[in-house]
Amino acid sequence: xxxxxxxxxxxxxxxxxxxxxxxxxxxxxxxxxxxxxxxxxxxxxxxxxxxxxxxxxxxxxxxxxxxxxxxxxxxxxxxxxxxxxxxxxxxxxxxxxxxxxxxxxxxxxxxxxxxxxxxxxxxxxxxxxxxxxxxxxxxxxxxxxxxxxxxxxxxxxxxxxxxxxxxxxxxxxxxxxxxxxxxxxxxxxxxxxxxxxxxxxxxxxxxxxxxxxxxxxxxxxxxxxxxxxxxxxxxxxxxxxxxxxxxxxxxxxxxxxxxxxxxxxxxxxxxxxxxxxxxxxxxxxxxxxxxxxxxxxxxxxxxxxxxxxxxxxxxxxxxxxx
Length: 322
Ligand SMILES: [Zn+2]
Hints:
Elements: H1 11-22, E1 27-31, H2 38-50, H3 60-66, E2 73-76, H4 85-95, E3 105-110, H5 117-128, E4 134-140, H6 148-151, E5 155-158, H7 164-171, H8 178-186, H9 192-200, H10 203-217, H11 221-232, H12 238-256, H13 264-267, H14 278-296, H15 301-321
Parallel strand pairs: 1-4, 1-5, 2-3, 3-4
Helix pairs in contact: 2-3, 4-5, 7-8, 8-9, 10-12, 11-15, 12-14, 14-15
């Protein structure tokens, strides 16, 4: 099974599959953290809704939807990622035109969270009570950018974050370097888009090297300032450094407990790191998880990097004494 079919295993998909049997809701909202895949995932839902066989992927309807060329299935925006109020006006007008080929019409708004509030407001009435045989399907990655009035009028479907093994298995056919893929999924964020991006990123290897070097060489407060300055020079990768460090900590912990490391090749890179024992590793993992959380709240990055580095040192210090 390829990564494009992972969505079919989700509860979100099953909900719509069930609605197909018992009657569709008039408006849906697909929430997914994976903004890069949103359009593709929405296409999968369009096929499920419109295809007689429930999204076979091969019939004329499915093929036309794949090409975004079906007369009764409209994607918005057609190009780019901006949705203007005029586009919404056109959609509303078009929703009153009868379906041309099928018994229903489907409008998909990709990135509905990027619609200006005016456009969202225009859509309200249609969302609440679309013309007969019309289904509106919104897709968004940031639910908070949608007006509460929009959210209350749609049936919400959430795409979950995928597990590492699930992502690995699904991506292997298209990302054949298993070792590299393992690293990409384990420092990704549980989305297909990010895992593929990391797999294709030539920086991945150097990020692993840098993070290993940091764990091996950072042993004093002075080192903290040096390494936080280095991290800030590549601040767009701050989250990656946290994720990679967590991966090293997990493997070091597994090894210290006599268990098998997930990434034995990567683990070799931190061989020289000192002061890490069970206590300091568990501590470092907790602090790293907290750093990831803080990063998602737009914390000051320099302070966050320093805080995290000091916490790792502090853990080594605490657990040395005990
Ligand atoms: Zn089909």
